[in-house]
Amino acid sequence: MCAIVGIYDNDNAARLASIALFAMQHRGQEATGISSSINGKIHTIKNRGLVSEVFDDDALKILKGNMAIGHNRYSTAGGDSILDAQPVFAKYKLGEMSIVHNGNLINKNEVREELTNNGAIFQTGMDTENLIHLIAKSSENRLRDRIKEALNKTIGAYCFIVQSRSKQFVIRDRYGIRPLSLGKLKSGGYIVASETCAFDLVDAEFIRDVRPGEMLIFSEKTNEPESIQLFEPIFRPCAFEYVYFARPDSDIDGKNVYTTRQNMGKTLAKNDKNKDFKADMVVPVPDSGVPAALGYASESKIPFEYGIIRNHYVGRTFIEPTQEMRNLKVRMKLSPMKSLIKGKSLLVIDDSIVRGTTSKRIVKMLKDAGAKEVHFRVASPEIKFPCYYGIDTPNQEELISHKMTKDEICEYIQADSLEYLSIDDLKKSIGDDRNYALESFDGDYFVTK
Amino acid sequence: MCAIVGIYDNDNAARLASIALFAMQHRGQEATGISSSINGKIHTIKNRGLVSEVFDDDALKILKGNMAIGHNRYSTAGGDSILDAQPVFAKYKLGEMSIVHNGNLINKNEVREELTNNGAIFQTGMDTENLIHLIAKSSENRLRDRIKEALNKTIGAYCFIVQSRSKQFVIRDRYGIRPLSLGKLKSGGYIVASETCAFDLVDAEFIRDVRPGEMLIFSEKTNEPESIQLFEPIFRPCAFEYVYFARPDSDIDGKNVYTTRQNMGKTLAKNDKNKDFKADMVVPVPDSGVPAALGYASESKIPFEYGIIRNHYVGRTFIEPTQEMRNLKVRMKLSPMKSLIKGKSLLVIDDSIVRGTTSKRIVKMLKDAGAKEVHFRVASPEIKFPCYYGIDTPNQEELISHKMTKDEICEYIQADSLEYLSIDDLKKSIGDDRNYALESFDGDYFVTK
Amino acid sequence: MCAIVGIYDNDNAARLASIALFAMQHRGQEATGISSSINGKIHTIKNRGLVSEVFDDDALKILKGNMAIGHNRYSTAGGDSILDAQPVFAKYKLGEMSIVHNGNLINKNEVREELTNNGAIFQTGMDTENLIHLIAKSSENRLRDRIKEALNKTIGAYCFIVQSRSKQFVIRDRYGIRPLSLGKLKSGGYIVASETCAFDLVDAEFIRDVRPGEMLIFSEKTNEPESIQLFEPIFRPCAFEYVYFARPDSDIDGKNVYTTRQNMGKTLAKNDKNKDFKADMVVPVPDSGVPAALGYASESKIPFEYGIIRNHYVGRTFIEPTQEMRNLKVRMKLSPMKSLIKGKSLLVIDDSIVRGTTSKRIVKMLKDAGAKEVHFRVASPEIKFPCYYGIDTPNQEELISHKMTKDEICEYIQADSLEYLSIDDLKKSIGDDRNYALESFDGDYFVTK
Amino acid sequence: MCAIVGIYDNDNAARLASIALFAMQHRGQEATGISSSINGKIHTIKNRGLVSEVFDDDALKILKGNMAIGHNRYSTAGGDSILDAQPVFAKYKLGEMSIVHNGNLINKNEVREELTNNGAIFQTGMDTENLIHLIAKSSENRLRDRIKEALNKTIGAYCFIVQSRSKQFVIRDRYGIRPLSLGKLKSGGYIVASETCAFDLVDAEFIRDVRPGEMLIFSEKTNEPESIQLFEPIFRPCAFEYVYFARPDSDIDGKNVYTTRQNMGKTLAKNDKNKDFKADMVVPVPDSGVPAALGYASESKIPFEYGIIRNHYVGRTFIEPTQEMRNLKVRMKLSPMKSLIKGKSLLVIDDSIVRGTTSKRIVKMLKDAGAKEVHFRVASPEIKFPCYYGIDTPNQEELISHKMTKDEICEYIQADSLEYLSIDDLKKSIGDDRNYALESFDGDYFVTK
After folding, report:
1. Is ipTM > 0.85 here?
2. Which residues of A touch D90 (CB under 8 A)?
3. Are chains B and A in contact at 3+ CB pairs closer than 8 Å?
4. In the prediction, which pLDDT does B44 show?
5. Across D258-270, average pLDDT
């Protein structure tokens, strides 16, 4: 996941970047950072923590200048170091640059090996450092040409923003796997952000999505960003953004996330093969299961009810439960609406099942609270393959759908029935006008260049 | 508001108290505290901040003993001092005691004046300090009799737990205005808490509500708490708990909060005098407006939609917006679902209107996002009077319904129509088997003793 | 110990109070606090920590007004609660007051018992709370008369400053045990402080010491403070202030601390009964042993050398040493000058020996570093009795001079010889024109009223 | 400045490194860090702040392994980034390495330019990053040979410790400008540290100084470190370590710092050209001026007195003084002993004068406190040239001795007389058996290779 933002030609660049990052906090809570450029010098502040913790007025006073890029980092294995926060800054032959990146470079290790064999050093674990090296090593004279050359050696799903002392270069990979949109700020200048939900908070108007394979160049000489088509586009946007990642009020490549999720629920209901029981209510696993549950309810005419409450005060550290309170952690986050569900047959909707442990705990919690039956419905297909395109899925061995059939999973999570959305239905729910990136579901690892 | 909890006869008393307070965090986020008793000594830790911030393992190690009381403090005017956190501890003639309190004593100033005239000092602004003084000044020999005598001089809405070195005394006022329930811990001992939602997290079974005018005494001599009816009960539970305060999964005096809120929405729909327009969707103001909106939608058959997203990352301090971003604060918390509501006629449901400023901002936000019409519906009656029974309402001059008629408010908040739930309909929604405390709506300040 | 300060009639009252407390930080590092008065309202900020940690600009912005009192708290057993920081604030019959106190009330428990028997409550462990109760309970009409009446029931060593909404009352006990001086601020108004070293930092001119038994009243009606002799003076200032507590650049009751310490060293040298050995150098235990060591060296003509270095970076918490590093703690604070002392005979000067453990560690450290002989000299008499007059000495059982003879102590700390300053020599060193409080040395607990 | 430490073959490696860094805190307070190696993996923790703040037990639990290197960073201009803390870690062709560095590379910019021209990137402002690049780019197969090759391209004053997954390489430049000593830990293994004062705290025995131009290699195959003479030694140790930097209890290259400082004071007294006045006392500017002042006093027979007190509670941030309190900052750190110096003629000894502003403030402070005359003596020669060998001196334009003659400086700081130690006398004071690095005094920038 992760979120990136770029602000160009606005005197409040870093402030606007921080507000946009705040709006995209759901894409990464581990660390955050912003680089601004002023008078030919780049200033960077980055740290672990939430946007609202890292960027106070003191920080923003340091980040002067009329251009800024920013990043929210999702918690990933091993990357606990503060050095693994972005933007990544470097001095190189042409001066200074700073980079933010959302995505995943699948040839990271090969590139690293080649680079280190030629004497390069890596100070972080981030693939973003690869790109900086490739740019610095290019023999081209202009930064735009260096970036092009670097990207020619880069395979993966990516959205980059490279900021030099006076310019910004925005690149989306040829498949358009991760989202990236362009907007115009009412207070002047431009914004590029992973999700359009950031535009509302900073008073920006959506212009268009950045095109697959496109490089946008913001420079002092132009008012409008220059557009260069770097690679021939082969559009395959990530379906998982619609299923789970993006905020429901965002529009990704022309499709509203909330609406597509509702469609997933509706389609799930329409094609539910297992309707022998009579469910008393449709219950979402909050918050991300809500739109699909509303869709399921409206299609099936079964009443929608808030059978599970989500507690938003859960912090990072808390009282360790005693031995007898094993299931406390999930219950501190989710509480069953006891009086409502007692003796009732529930149709529970979640957005996805990854390892199965949370689903199992939810079913147990609901049954302990008195639910007569729990029919589990998943508004996405079975996740059988790890994602290498920027989503933080676990190893294949940990994916329950890799190890078990649907019936075995149903038994494992102790549900009374279990249904998934089929791959075809997922495509239809988002809109069957496109060829989506579905590698987690179908194992089609199509990125080769 | 505020929340209180008592744990009796369990070796993890303070830990369980902290978990219960965590479950009741919605009743107060300003400060929190716990007193435990061990070996005839009371230990207290209290501080500003959330339960998950104040009570880590280090704190719990200090709070040893098999009995504990705890408190969450709601943010109230002037009470910014750490001294205004509870429990309030005191040494007095018979030894040590610690007290937690939820409610409001309406003869606070008279009692204070009498006490100070007789030489007492007050180190805090809390009315809880009154009770401690009255207990300490009593000429009775037993603590239970001192408490009785003190309560005889106390007028107001209250739930108290007084903890001595080896006993706990639990009192609910004769009107039962504020909620208080008794449960049995599966790991041993008893719990008393403001809301039953705390019982689930600590694995406790609900026994019964504490009765209006009842004192429960937990002491080493008894397994079951001793019950004494201190005052003749005149049951008038607070309607506002159902409207707004309590968590939807709590049952208060035998009525589930979520269900009563749904009923409010249904009744509102049934009796909506203003139905000339054709609303495209029912949209709740999240989170507390959701159950009523579901009720309205199910009754009216207008589709329920999540037209407003709530951002839960809003912290305490954040980047000050620039001059041009005046409305940023409400928008950082609530975001309109632009694509969904564009060109639509919305029926927006909120739980209440107090000052009117937030409602006005919500209407503006929705219209700016493209809503064609915004019809505002309030799942409670007009708030015309301040509450003196423990709810933190502002002065009467700030209450918009004190200053304006319904039509004027509709104009002020720029809604296309506005309807409230009538007082009668509110009573029916909760259940017309009882005489509720409705002073905010009808000005009936009935507490006289 | 502890330090108190009062600033009257200066628009920067709280700021000046914080600077004065900073200058007196050596008298107490556990907690600090300031109360200011403005528009008939008293504001208080107090917390654990150093003055420079608690009082930043944000804190001082809250503490508005042209009068302020402040306090530094010394670490004392059991008083770990934030409630035990001063000033102590209370509302009482006549309004608001805030008190700071340096000293110790020896009839604290009797007064508490009488007060609690009459229904009073105590929320802290501090004897300062006694005084507030006594003031509040007085039947007098004017605060000054209430304070008088309260002091009539108070036995002990004390300096108080009581601040009401518009006045300050400064009291020093009839014996003048603890120091207290009056100064005039060049920027306007007056200062009262425990030590004159505070005057330099705030640009104040020393006027005179507050007299034993005197009450100074600062009020809006007068420019000069009004002086009332409350009690007949029986002047017996504490000798320990000169020996150890006070900062060397302070003048206490007309005598400079540094000079008296030098005199102690000189007298110690003059009357040293044990001179058979030939010491190579006089080495102080830094920092408080330095002036006496200089005196000893100048009198004995033995060269003064910095044989022990003090590390000032020692913080509150640090790496726990492993099992093998038992003596690390004293060595992290004090380091021997190995090259200098190797093979040398040292005459080590410390200000006092309390429990003997530190002295033992110092001797061992010096011998481990190669010292041939360590002759220990103490610039004060043997401490055989606990102090009840405001100095934080341990119980009598822990005092090594209570349990052992001089020779036994010498053996215990493994010194080659040991000498103390006699009581008579101590008196002479400070100036034999006065009757000093010497209870730690001679057990004369003279305070009876 | 800065301090470095290496611990080899001890199970408490990181703990011992932290204690050693604590002992060397005076060499750098801005940031600190430690890298440990275990199971072929290097773990690093570094942050801004003091050693006692950064390294608590939680940090040390992460830093497992039986070898560790550490660093204290001195505050230098521009290096406010956390990225500029050391050790610097990198993955490169042969695996992982981590480096600490004390000193300054004078061909830093040339090397950087060459490296960036060849495509290298620099993520920090530290010259240490140069060395890592050079090591990584070497075509040699063994790390020791790569380090050699890298050092062949490196000009400057340096002490490095390079830690790989299982070895440590310690290098001191051919001039031995910065100190570095080798010790044997009583608990097993070896220590290398900038100053011997670190040895005492970790219970290590001094073996010898690392030789100029020597590389020590600690590897699993050997018990004793392997020694390789990398460069022909041209011994020129830094005189400033003796004058100001090092702790007085350290021995540098066989000479005790305290003793050399005393000698400087004695020599200053012996050759003082200006003795017409009769000084009443010798007063050091604490703490670093103390040994020289003792030397001056013993030679001149003028009494040594503590005329200036140093306050050690000065934290990083504090109350801003009001407009009228301009000189507060120096006075919060240093207080004049008013009673002692009033009407007296003082001979004040400081270790050096850099910009002159502090000296001017000290003279003013003493005269304001009543000193009749202030004769300023400096225990080092005039600083006329900036240091490029690892000492943080300002630009030449800011050096007062670059801009003014001795008489002009005397007038500027308002002293009654001013004398410096001559360069020859400085050499003699340390020991005229060596050719010292004296570039700050004589401008002889001798480092060429």
Report:
1. yes
2. 121-123
3. yes
4. 93
5. 97
pTM: predicted TM-score of the whole model, two decimal places? 0.90
Mean predicted confidence (pLDDT) in A5-22: 96
Tell me whether residue D350 is annotated as binding: yes
DSSP state of C245: I
**Residues from chain C contacting residue D26 (CB–CB below 8 Å):** 313
Q: Under DSSP, is residue D181 helix (H, G, I), strand (E, B) or coil?
A: strand
Q: What is the pLDDT of residue D326?
A: 54
**Residue D9 assigned to a binding site:** no
C324: alpha, beta or left? (left if phi > 0; alpha if psi -120 to 50): alpha
Q: For an interface test with B, give the residue of A18, A259, A306 to mutate (most B CBs within 10 A).
A: A306
Compute, in degrees rounded to 10, the torsion defined by CA atoms B326, B332, B333, B337. 100
Q: Are C253 and C176 in contact (CB under 8 A)?
A: yes
C105 contacts: CB under 8 Å, gap ≥ 6: C111, C127, C130, C131, C154, C155, C156, C158
CA A301 from centre of chain? 32
| Closest residue of chain C to D251, computed from CA coordinates | C339
A385 Cβ partners below 8 Å, 6+ apart?
A: A396, A399, A402, A439, A440, A441, A442, A443, A445
CA-based nearest distance A48→chain D, Å:
12
Question: What is the SS3 assignment for B300?
Answer: helix
The pLDDT of residue B327 is above 70? no
Instruction: Tell me the Cα Rg of chain C.
Output: 23
B131 min Cα distance to partner chain C (Å): 11
CB contact under 8 A, A25 and B55: no
Name the nearest CA neighbour of D7 among D144, D161, D200: D161
Query: Does the beta-carbon distance from A319 to B60 stay under 8 Å?
Result: yes
CA distance D95 to B374: 64
Smallest CA–CA distance from C196 into chain D, residue:
D338
Partners of B339 on chain A (C-beta within 8 Å) are 249, 251, 256, 258-259
C318 to chain D, closest Cα gap in Å = 5
In this predicted structure, which of A147-151, A444-448, C328-332, D443-447 has the lowest mean pLDDT?
Answer: C328-332
- Report the alpha-carbon distance of residue A57 to residue A64 in Å, rounded: 12
Cα C144 to Cα A237, C8, C90, C168, D246, distances in angstroms: 81, 17, 16, 10, 58
CA gap A380, A291 in Å, rounded: 13
pLDDT band (50, 70, 90) for residue D119: very high
Q: How confident is the model at residue A325 (pLDDT cuts 50, 70, 90)?
A: low
Quote the CA–CA distance of D197 and D246 in Å, as a whole number. 9
Q: CA-to-CA distance for D336 and D340, rounded, in angstroms?
A: 9
Write out the binding residues of C for Mg(2+): 288, 350-351
CA-based nearest distance A136→chain B, Å: 35
From residue A436, alpha-carbon distances to A63, A237, A240, A441, A444 in Å are 39, 5, 9, 11, 10
Adjacent-strand bridge partners of C70: C5, C34
Buried b vs exposed e over D7-31: b needs ≥16 C-beta within 10 Å? bbbbebbbbbbbbbbbbbbbbbbbb
Q: Which residues of A are catalytic?
A: 2
In this prediction, residue B322 has a pLDDT band, given cuts at 50, 70 and 90, of low
C2 part of the active site? yes
Nearest to A136 among D82, D89, D121 (CB): D121
At C79, is the pLDDT very low, low, confident or very high (cuts 50, 70, 90)? very low
Q: Indicate the pairing of strand D345-350 with strand D281-284.
A: parallel
Distance between CA atoms of D163 and D106, rounded to whole angstroms? 23
The residue of chain C nearest to residue B123, with distances taken between CA atoms, is C90
Q: Chain C residues with CB inside 8 Å of D291's CB?
A: 306
CB contact under 8 A, A119 and D132: no
Give the span between the Cα atoms of B341 and B372, in whole angstroms.
8
Select from D59, D52, D54 the least CA-distant residue to D14: D59
Q: Annotated binding site of B for Mg(2+), which residues?
A: 288, 350-351
